[in-house]
C-alpha cells in the first residue's frame, strides 16, 4: 500500500489527512501542533520541532521506520506547510526518489528544482489548490479547446458569508502568506507581454452571485500560467468584502502591519459561516467563450476553503496513487495534468458537494 505523508495539518492539511484516512489510505501526519487530528484513529502522528527543517524530521522518520522505504513507488509526500518553510522542505525532499505534492504556495516556486528532481528520480506536482490549481487546469482546458486566448481572468476569494464588521475577513491560511499576497507585485500578461503591476491595484467592485457587491484587486496568483498559458491578456484578482483592503492599506501606512497583529485580527473563527467563490473566464482570439464558476459554503466534512483547496489536492493524490506513472521525474504544475485526470478531479469535487458550473471537461 502507498503511504501518504502529510507535512502540515492545519485547516487544509487536517482536512486532506482526514479524508485520506476515511478512504482507507495509510497516513502519516507531521506538525508542531497536532490538535486538529488528535481524535483521528489509525493515523500516525509525528510531532515536528519548530527549529528544524520539517523535511529533515520526515526523512529521519522514514529512514528509521522499518515499514517505510524512501521510494517513489511506495511513498507520497504532501507538503502543506506555509510559505518559506514549505519551500525549504520541498527543496530538501527533491534530493530523494519521492513523489511530492507541494501546496506551500511559497513565493519561491519549485521550478528551480527541476534538474535536481530529474537526477534523484523525484517528481514534484505543485500549486494543486483552488487558485492556483483548479484555475490553472481550467485555463489549460480552454487553450486545448480554443487555442490562444485573447483574455483569461481569474477572480477568487474565501470570505465570511456576510459582512462581520472590522476586517470582514478571517485568514484560513497563515497570515504571513496573506500579507505576502497583499504586498508582492502582481505579475500579469498584457498585450502578450509579462508585466509587473503594484499589488492591490486595479481595484473595482464586482457582483458576486448571492452575495452582492464585493471588491476585486490584482494579486500575484498566476504563477506558472504566466509561462504555460498562451494568452494576450491574463489577470488574477482576489475578492474581499468592500473596505477590507483599504483597511489593510491604512494599517500599513500607519506601520501597524505585523504578524502578531494580523494573526489576532484575522483569527479564524470556525463558528463564523464562510464561503469560497471562484470565476474563471476565457475568451479566444475569435471570440469563443468558456467560463466556469466554483462555489461552496462548506459541509459536514469541513469549511469551504479547506474543501475547495483540499479536494483538488486530494483528487491529485488519489489519481497519482492509482497511476504511479501519471508523471515522470521532474517538476510539474497543475496545467500539465492530462484532460482525463483533470476531468476526474472535477467530478470528485462535485461528488463532494462543490458547485462547479461551466463547460464539461
Secondary-structure blueprint:
Layout: E1 3-7, H1 11-22, E2 26-31, E3 44-47, H2 54-64, E4 75-79, H3 83-93, E5 99-102, H4 114-120, E6 123-126, H5 134-146, E7 149-160, H6 175-183, E8 186-190, E9 193-197, E10 204-208, E11 212-218, H7 225-228, E12 234-240, H8 244-253, H9 259-265, E13 274-284, E14 289-296, H10 304-322, E15 330-332, H11 339-351, E16 355-357
Parallel strand pairs: 1-2, 1-4, 2-3, 4-5, 5-6, 6-15, 7-12
Antiparallel strand pairs: 7-13, 8-9, 10-11, 11-12, 13-14, 14-16
Helix pairs in contact: 1-10, 2-3, 10-11
Explain what you see.
It is a single chain. With 361 residues, this protein is of the alpha/beta class. It folds into two domains: 3-126, NAD(P)-binding Rossmann-like Domain (Rossmann fold); 134-302, Dihydrodipicolinate Reductase, domain 2 (2-Layer Sandwich). Helices cover 32% and strands 26% of the residues. It has helices at residues 11-22, 54-64, 83-93, 114-120, 134-146, 175-183, 225-228, 244-253, 259-265, 304-322, 339-351, and strands at 3-7, 26-31, 44-47, 75-79, 99-102, 123-126, 149-160, 186-190, 193-197, 204-208, 212-218, 234-240, 274-284, 289-296, 330-332, 355-357. A hairpin with a 3-residue loop joins strand 10 (204-208) and strand 11. The longest helix has 19 residues, at 304-322. The radius of gyration is 20 Å and the shape is globular.
Task: Give short descriptive properties of this protein.
alpha/beta, Rossmann fold, Dihydrodipicolinate Reductase, domain 2, about 30% helix, globular
Overall 3D geometry?
globular
The overall strand count is 16
Strand order in the sheet with the most strands: 3-2-1-4-5-6-15
Portion in strands: 25-35%
Unreliable parts: none
Rg, Å, rounded? 20 Å
What is the highest CATH level, the class of the largest domain?
Alpha Beta
CATH architecture of the largest domain: 2-Layer Sandwich
Largest sheet: 7 strands, parallel
Mean pLDDT: 95
- Could you give the distance between the termini? 30 Å
Overall number of domains: 2
> How many H/I helical runs?
11
Looking at this structure, what is the CATH superfamily of the largest domain? Dihydrodipicolinate Reductase, domain 2
The chain-level structural class is alpha/beta
CATH topology of the largest domain: Dihydrodipicolinate Reductase, domain 2
Helix content class = 25-40%
| SSE ordering | EHEEHEHEHEHEHEEEEHEHHEEHEHE
Amino acid at each position: 500500500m502507498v503511504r501518504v505523508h502529510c507535512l502540515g495539518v492545519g485547516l487544509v492539511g487536517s482536512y486532506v489527512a482526514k479524508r485520506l484516512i476515511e478512504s482507507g489510505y495509510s497516513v502519516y501526519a507531521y506538525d508542531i501542533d497536532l490538535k486538529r487530528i488528535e481524535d483521528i484513529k489509525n493515523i500516525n502522528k509525528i510531532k515536528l520541532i519548530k527549529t528544524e527543517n520539517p523535511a529533515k524530521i520526515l526523512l529521519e522518520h522514514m529512514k528509521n521506520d522499518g515499514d517505510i522505504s524512501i521510494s517513489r513507488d511506495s511513498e507520497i509526500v504532501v507538503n502543506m506547510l506555509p510559505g518559506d518553510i514549505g519551500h525549504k522542505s520541498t527543496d530538501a525532499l527533491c534530493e530523494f526518489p519521492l513523489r511530492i505534492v507541494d501546496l506551500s504556495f511559497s513565493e519561491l516556486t519549485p521550478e528551480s528544482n527541476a534538474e535536481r528532481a530529474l537526477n534523484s528520480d523525484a517528481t514534484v506536482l505543485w500549486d494543486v489548490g483552488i487558485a492556483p490549481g483548479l484555475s490553472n487546469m481550467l485555463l489549460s482546458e480552454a487553450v486545448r479547446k480554443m487555442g490562444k486566448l485573447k483574455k483569461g481572468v481569474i477572480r477568487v476569494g474565501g470570505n465570511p458569508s456576510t459582512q462581520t464588521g472590522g476586517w470582514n475577513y478571517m485568514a484560513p491560511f497563515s497570515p504571513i502568506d496573506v500579507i505576502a499576497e497583499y504586498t508582492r507585485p502582481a505579475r500579469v500578461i498584457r498585450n502578450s507581454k509579462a508585466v509587473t503591476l503594484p499589488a492591490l491595484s486595479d481595484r473595482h467592485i464586482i457582483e458576486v452571485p448571492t452575495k452582492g457587491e464585493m471588491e476585486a484587486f490584482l494579486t500575484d496568483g498566476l504563477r506558472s500560467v504566466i509561462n504555460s498559458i498562451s494568452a494576450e491578456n491574463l489577470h488574477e484578482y482576489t475578492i474581499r468584502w468592500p473596505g477590507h483592503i483599504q483597511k489593510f492599506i491604512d494599517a500599513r501606512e500607519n506601520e501597524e502591519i505585523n504578524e502578531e497583529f494580523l494573526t489576532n485580527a484575522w483569527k479564524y473563527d470556525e463558528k463564523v459561516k464562510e464561503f469560497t467563490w471562484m470565476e474563471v473566464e476565457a475568451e479566444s482570439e475569435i471570440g469563443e467563450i468558456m467560463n466556469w464558476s466554483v462555489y461552496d459554503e462548506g459541509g459536514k466534512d469541513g469549511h469551504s476553503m479547506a474543501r475547495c483547496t483540499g479536494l483538488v489536492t486530494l483528487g491529485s493524490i488519489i489519481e497519482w496513487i492509482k497511476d504511479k506513472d501519471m508523471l515522470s521525474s521532474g517538476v510539474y504544475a497543475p496545467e500539465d495534468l492530462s484532460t482525463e485526470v483533470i476531468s476526474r478531479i472535477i467530478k470528485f469535487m462535485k461528488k463532494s458537494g462543490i458547485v462547479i458550473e461551466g463547460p464539461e471537461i
